Amino acid sequence: MNLLKAPSPLLRSIAVFSVALFFHIFIGTSHAQLPGKDGSLNVVAANTVVNTYYVLMQPVSMGNSTLVLNTGSGLSAGDLLMIHQAKGAVIGTANDISFGEVLDYNGAGNFELCGVAAVSGSTITLAAPLKQSYTTSGNTQVVRIPQYSELTVSNGASIVARAWNGLTGGIVALSVSGTLTLNGRIHADGAGFRGGALSGNGGSVLQSNTLYRTTSVADGALKGESIADSALVASAGRYGRGAAANGGGGGNNHNAGGGGGANGMSPSTWTGQGVMCTSCPGASAWSLDPAGANANSSGGGRGGYTYSASNRDALQVGPGNSNWGGDYRQERGGLGGRPLVAIPESRVFFGGGGGAGHQNNSSGGPGGNGGGFVFVHATAVTGSGSISANGNNGGATTGNGNDGPGGAGGGGSIVLDAASIGTIQLTAEGGVGGNQFINYNLETEGPGGGGGGGFIATRMYVSNMSVNGGANGTTSSPSLGEFPANGATSGAAGNIVLLTAAPLPVELVSFSARMKGGVIELHWTTATELNNYGFEVERSVDKHTWETLQFVVGNGTTFSPRSYSWSDASTSRINARSTLWYRLKQIDRDGSTEYSPVISVAPTADATLSAIEAYPNPMIDQTVVSFTLAAESTVSLTVYNMLGQEVARLVDTQSMSAGTFTSILHANNLLPGNYIVRLLAGDHTSTTMLRKQ
């Protein structure tokens, strides 16, 4: 008896749409790949590797359609490939805190999917030209993606990435034209950039080591691996506390802990100091830290203090005081790795490796590996399993324990492209900093910093997602029982974004309109811009027919906020209508375009209500929304997502007198992305755009 039902027309339509959208976003116009080519698979064993990895042997430029690999074995026409460049970023090399600043990504993190048209030896002909360039010096690999019709991962089973070895690995990539039934795990935990290895013993107590990069093992421990160009890091100095891009810094001589790696972006500015745990034992000691109390940096956590040899009260005697003996318990731990700016459709990173702890007694801890990159496309995902790309914990001390522990690995990246997602769990968390296990005279060293959180991109909201940073390590020394963190800090959270059908190269964070003095003022702000040529301002009187009013020049490529404004003074058209609608047509330098959300304003609104104001915008967990009424009105204030679905009602058809009013929007349960706030006061409306980080 055949109990399998044929798929319904609706399910078939969803599957066709999902596959077509997947090809449009990630593959473009290439159609040589064959969805379902690898049939169905039921995974029942743990640690199953389904991908095959190849090394790109010759650099390729955008527009090329030929790849030369180390071998073409196992590839054939109709296969689907991912090309991914892991490294190559240009960084600053000054011997100060700016060491490791990303000056140019230089292709690091770039990826795309392409179909195979033909294979001849180690030469692969692609079905369509490449959309980006890739270098061999940037450690570019090519990964064969299996194309399943159906995929089941049973309870207790797992699909894993082969660990990154400097040339290949670190990636799990799957395409399922039907349903992925996930009751086990798919993960790239600890498969990303490698943590700093323990170096040979070295370094006498100096009480003055402030180096951020050095070529001497005596001065500091090895930094964690990152997107930075390997040769550049080696020539500048692989040792010391400076953070090379998203890799954690190594602990400085004498015996400081390693810094945590990083990946995902959080709203806080990067300082390398991590996040000081204010709820942990001895939190009042942070007020004595040279970085200041309650440091809150994005990226990885900082490694703990250097060697101390006496028992003092850490809540009263701060770091650097000679009464601690030894190396005076100085703030010289490896700095936390820097967060990176990912673009889920074209640039995604491994989690940075944690920096090693400095050792001179063969007892230190290595840095933890960062999380890898998991890419999954399916029409639907069901089951109760998990997808993860977590960073590994930092290495703990061994033997007598009288050396520095390692920093943790940063969380990796997950891109999940599915039209339907069930109750699975997604995590790209930083690891926990390495612990010091010691009871050796009165000696104490600083633990490892926690790893920063990773990056997750999905097509829809998933209730169980986490990009948390990892906690700092602790010391078991009786001399620091009152403050076991001993200077080590936690990693910051990463970020979660939504995939879009045609992603804007510009991250628009606000767009508003208001009537003032007979003209309508438009204001908008961007967080980042990539190859932005500019904006065309468009207006409609019916939300159907649009006219172009003005072109506003963009800022090209920038990772700093930029503000724009333009005023519509065509009063003859304005006074004839009760409501006007506006939108922005963003134009990329390659000619591609995308539209902003539509906002509206009533031309007579300045006599009745003001524009909506919201602060802060972007928001994290809440924002205050304010507006002013010139006369008594019946008011509704509603928040919508970009699908037009109501997500919050702040004022519900309430009669309100003239005056200024505020309402708090609590955003803890809202997915990061854009939202529209609509104010209705009598017959007049005003809208603005909000963004949640």
| Rg result | 27 Å
How far is the first residue's CA from the last residue's CA? 52 Å
User: Fraction of residues in helices?
Assistant: under 10%
Q: Helical segment tally?
A: 3
Question: Approximately how much beta-strand content do the residues carry?
Answer: 25-35%
Low-confidence stretches: 1-21
Largest sheet: 8 strands, parallel
Shape: globular
> Average pLDDT value?
87
- Counting helices, strands and paired strands, the structural category is mainly beta
* Strand segment count: 35
Summarize the structure.
With 693 residues, the protein is mainly beta. The protein has helices at 9-27, 230-236, 571-575, and strands at residues 41-43, 52-55, 66-68, 80-85, 90-91, 102-104, 111-120, 123-126, 140-145, 147-148, 151-153, 158-160, 171-182, 185-187, 373-382, 386-388, 413-421, 425-427, 455-458, 465-466, 495-498, 506-516, 519-540, 546-558, 562-568, 580-588, 593-595, 599-601, 613-615, 622-629, 633-641, 646-656, 659-666, 673-681, 684-692.
Question: What are the salient characteristics of this protein?
Answer:
693 residues, mainly beta, eight-stranded parallel sheet, seven-stranded antiparallel sheet, 35 strands, 4% helix, globular, disordered N terminus
What does this structure look like?
Helix content is 4%, strand content 32%. 54% of the residues are buried. A hairpin with a 6-residue loop joins strand 29 and strand 30. The protein is built from 3 helices and 35 strands. The N terminus is likely disordered. With 693 residues, the protein is mainly beta. The two termini are 52 Å apart. The strands form 7 sheets. Strands 1, 10, 11, 13, 15, 17, 19 and 21 form an 8-stranded parallel sheet that branches.
